[in-house]
Amino acid sequence: MEMAYRERWKAEIAAMRGVLAGLAMTEECKWGKPTYTVDGRNIVIIQGFKEYFALGFFQGALLKDRKKVLVQLGQVQAGRVMKFTSAKEVTARAATIKAYVREAIAVEKSGLRVKRRTTSDFPVPEELSDRFRRDPRFKRAFEALTPGRQRSYLYHFAAAKQPATRTARIEKAMPAIFAGRGFRERR
């Protein structure tokens, strides 16, 4: 697997490698991306996206983030990213990057981990509870899904602000739930 947008972010990758070079980590290729480890444990990963380039912190949620530069992407629980759009920006923020990476190494060495949310930690929207009461077969189909698939649907349903939108999302998801598929899974 090749890193997405590798050519587009060539200068930024080189600049980031330069910043990370002085730190006590090993660069490996994991998931087709430059990944930095300490004692075989993942610390950071370099990622290219269409609109930005990122340094991903595997346990970023545990960092203090004093400068408020870490971003949570989607439903990821532990990971956080630092976004960049130019090599100049990487170089200008080198001291911050190094400080955050040193903290990430310390977190990893301490053995700290983000407490994973379980399915029961996700609220069940009233509209879904109501649907379960009216359709026990649907409730059984939902409960037969893997916990990760259940969490994904619960997150998706609860993210809607309006009750009508939550109801529409539930209705639209029903065929996939009956088929045992997750929220983002195709046939």
Q: What count of domains describes the coordinates?
A: 2
Number of helices: 7
Radius of gyration of CA atoms, rounded to a whole number: 20 Å
Helix content: 40-55%
Low-pLDDT runs: none
Taking the sheet with the most strands, its summary is:
6 strands, antiparallel
The CATH architecture of the largest domain is: 2-Layer Sandwich
CATH fold-level assignment of the largest domain: Yope Regulator, Chain: A
Descriptors:
6-stranded antiparallel sheet, 2 domains, about 45% helix, Yope Regulator, Chain: A, about 190 residues, 7 helices, alpha+beta
Describe this structure in words.
With 187 residues, the protein is of the alpha+beta class. It has two domains: 10-110, Yope Regulator, Chain: A, CATH 3.30.1460.10; 119-178, no CATH class. The protein is built from seven helices and six strands, in the order αββββββαααααα. It has a six-stranded antiparallel β-sheet. A hairpin with a 2-residue loop joins strand 1 and strand 2. The longest helix is centred in the middle third of the chain and has 17 residues, at 94-110. It is elongated, with a radius of gyration of 20 Å. The two termini are 23 Å apart. The mean pLDDT is 91.
